[in-house]
Write a structure and sequence with these properties.
Chain lengths: 528, 528
């Protein structure tokens, strides 16, 4: 009887287009990136797929604990986790010192170049760690994976997939300079209304903004080419034929982008791009007792949630004191995630925690505002729960993210380097007491919640689609078969211009010839 | 108890983002277009919305039968249904005489111009019939509609919506020349790999094809401008401010396009475009007894379904005989929808019907092939049920549709004007006996069925979304605020070129000046 029920269930599932028990291989990126792909992995496991994650011996954040559905395949690399952390530290420092504006982007990439080169070197060692480990590659081949899901910010997942002869899918927020989405993914990015990443521009640009955006695109393309060019030789060697990083990336079946139109400005895209921003968001759970009591003690004023993310452990004493005294000037209770020394100016309304249940706090009805560094995950939790934000961006896409939230009327920005206590206080008062901020945050929240299919379900749907159909070739634009001058129709325009020039030349020649002949006849006639 | 259950249900529905009991206004187009929007109307009624359809007194196909959820609002126009049928007849005749290829598109539009102008004249009388009927407009305003769904192939729905102060949505397959989607909707159409409508090209183009495509785009844009230009003045007058047809169309909240990637070649689009092709398709129902018996009598050979659509009632006697004798040469049984005189050559394997249950026949397991004129609805029923096709296109988008199916390996084309009996027979044998055709048709079918949300549900979701949120402004690209030269960054490029020229000029001048000065000093020195 039970067997019959199981068989019936399996039949129903297959009619509903549900894939059971597939084998998925993951090429992750360590650190906060892991959190995003982990959500997808958990959902794949929920749907009874067997997931194998490739983890290097130098991983510092991913904790390899296998279970019946999840296998961590550990491969050896010649560096330790500390080395990666050191490079990440240098990267953040270089970024914080050199904010990339369109006018400083050149210097910015000069400064950020060395840590990126270090990343590339470690990344290549990771890639070697898998590709040159014949025993591992043999084992992977035997495991009959149906798809590889890769975070492409660290290249290599795509080569592994091609070597195993399986389709691959990307999961990313954006690639530096969007060059990859543009040139390798073939999405058109009109610089007249699509702001370049890291430009902090919005879709409403003045003439000057559009000049800055135009320059920003081209400079970033150039920088990308310079800094990532070295991968072309690696890819060619690994795949045993002349190729480029870009050409290989263009073979991705689906690009799962971790944004959506609640955050992003509307822009063109292609059918093999799926916007799954906020896939990690979920309803708030009840808070731990002590925290709930503190939250409830805020009365009608409510609370402020404050976190600068997992990468910033502590601040200078001066900065911490300045922040604490700003927070002391508001009537709300503040829950501050901070691992540094307790600031002397800390008031009774503020409590410091090593860790806070951020999502549960943001979803609490007493929450009035969120002070955030502007990481995508935090921003999306803010959007999900409709909480207005005070942004204190520091590096990477944080300035851009806050610029988006400002443009959508749901955030105020405070400059980390120059802010005063009063500025922080005023920013908080603005987002808490000017109703438009809450209204806009709620509007974004309602856009986020009102989708035909939830982001995580869409992400998993397309992974399963690729498993069921061995790819998604019907979504791949033919633009991938064209060279850049063919893509822009430059050969056609050149040919048509040449034709026109020839016609004009011939017509002119004929006219001149006729005129001369007619002139001569005329003269002759005159003479006669 | 019952009341409590209903309240609970309503609460659950609202949590699930379901809108109950909204008021929807429809601006339809008569004829086969009505069938498509009718599917959406039926689903809206299913979801308990009140739907009002604006029907002119000159409608020849729409049957106004109101019920509790559906109201037909009839308005007076100074023409009869026969007049519209006559113009449609002229349009089809002109089209069948002048097939639009890139080399003949100029002449084609010259010939098709007069019937299009006649359409425009009738269309304007329909528009006047609503806008200048103050009693009707007052009644519509009182009805508090939340959204207007318009088939934009006959303009005016958008003006009515703007006059009523409500958002509007388009439902269409494509607009002539795609000019509207491109210039008014702001979708990029790279001519290097996106074939122009009516070009019969695919996404795999040779250099010559790309030249033809490039020219086709620009000629069609020009023709559109010429033939639809007169609407600009009408729109300006109706809205009481200088505007254009294109500017007004650009205000659509959502564009529901009746194609999908099973049919379409992958190309860029924007977030306010939703591809809902095949929304009318549904599983096959059992056949009427007589037809089922005839189908079953086909044995292992199976059947062929044959229809040239609702617009072609009869053929010349010669053509009908030629077709019938072609059909006589295959072992399958044929069900032919045909209202003309019974051909003399009709064999026992072929039966003629005034009407056939086309969808139910295509979904029958005995069906081996579908002879179709290539209308979008029929093509989609073929895709839905995975039936390979023999295309006999005649006018409108039919050649294009068949070209798509040919490119995807699911159809063979036969020329209506030049075909012989043997050609029809051979085409049928090819799609029936060469396995690749069935395989490709099944592949398209599986792509069609394997979507996260069914096309009809997505269409209705976005209509309800616009009702819930009073629009979908978060999906509207900022490109709408730019002029064409701003959109293409021509002002920015011009400015940067001017800057470069100035710098080069100044540097050259400085060099020349220094050289001259240095030269003189040199000479002076020499003299000294």
């Amino acid at each position: 009887m039970l067997e019959k029920s199981i068989l019936l269930l399996l039949l129903q599932l297959s009619v509903l287009g549900i894939t059971l028990g597939g084998n998925v291989l993951i090429w992750p990126v360590d650190g906060s990136h892991w959190l995003n792909i982990k959500i997808i992995i958990d959902e794949l496991i929920n749907k009874q797929h067997n997931v194998t994650v490739l983890v290097s011996s130098g991983a510092f954040y991913i904790k390899p604990i296998s279970n019946s559905y999840l296998t961590y395949e550990r491969y050896k690399v010649p560096f330790e986790g500390e080395k990666m952390l050191e490079v990440i530290g240098n990267f953040i420092l270089a970024w914080m010192k050199n904010k990339p504006t369109p006018s400083t982007i050149w210097r910015f990439y000069q400064e950020i170049g060395p840590p990126i080169k270090d990343f590339n070197a470690l990344n290549r060692e990771m890639c070697d760690g898998v590709l040159k480990n014949q025993k591992l590659m043999k084992k992977l081949k035997k495991s009959k994976f149906e798809v590889l899901v890769s975070d492409p910010v660290f290249p290599c997942g795509d080569i592994i997939a091609l070597k195993l002869g399986i389709p691959f899918i990307y999961s990313l927020k954006y690639y530096p300079a969007s060059t990859v989405e543009k040139h390798c993914g073939k999405i058109p990015y009109p610089p007249s209304y699509v702001p370049a990443v890291l430009s902090e521009l919005t879709d409403q640009m003045s003439f000057t903004d559009r000049i800055r955006n135009f320059i920003s695109y081209h400079l970033q393309d150039y920088m990308f080419d310079t800094l990532w060019k070295s991968w072309d030789a690696y890819y060619s060697e690994a795949l045993g034929r002349p190729t480029t990083l870009c050409e290989t990336m263009g073979k991705a079946e689906i690009w799962l982008l971790r944004t959506y139109w609640d955050f992003e400005f509307p822009r063109p895209y292609l059918p093999n791009f799926e916007f799954v921003g906020g896939l990690h968001c979920k309803p708030a759970k009840p808070l731990p007792k002590e925290i709930e009591e503190f939250v409830q003690s805020s009365g009608e004023h409510g609370i402020v949630v404050f976190s600068l993310g997992s990468m910033v452990k502590n601040l200078t004493e001066e900065k911490a004191n300045l922040i604490a005294s700003g927070l002391a000037q508001i009537p709300q209770k503040v829950l501050w995630r901070y691992q540094g020394k307790k600031p002397a100016t800390l008031a009774a309304n503020t409590r410091i925690y090593d860790w806070i249940p951020q999502n549960d706090l943001l979803g609490h009805p007493k929450t009035k505002a969120f002070i955030t560094h502007g990481g995508t995950n935090g921003i999306y939790e803010g959007i999900y729960h409709g909480v207005p934000m005070v942004g204190v961006p520091m590096f990477a896409d944080q300035h851009d993210n806050i610029a988006h939230m400002k443009a959508k009327g749901a955030a105020v920005e405070v400059n980390m380097h120059t802010m005063t206590s009063a500025e922080l206080r005023d920013a908080l008062k603005t987002v808490i007491y000017e109703p438009s901020y809450k209204e806009n945050a709620m509007r974004l929240s309602s856009i986020h919640h009102d989708q035909p299919v939830k982001p995580l379900d869409r992400a998993v749907f397309w992974i399963e689609f690729v498993m069921r159909h061995k790819g998604a070739k019907h979504l791949r634009p033919a633009a991938h078969n064209l060279t850049w001058f063919q893509y822009h129709s430059l050969d056609v325009i050149g040919f048509l211009l040449a034709c026109m020039a020839t016609v004009i030349f011939l017509v002119t020649k004929c006219c001149l010839f006729s005129c001369r002949k007619f002139g001569k006849t005329g003269k002759k006639k005159k003479r006669e």
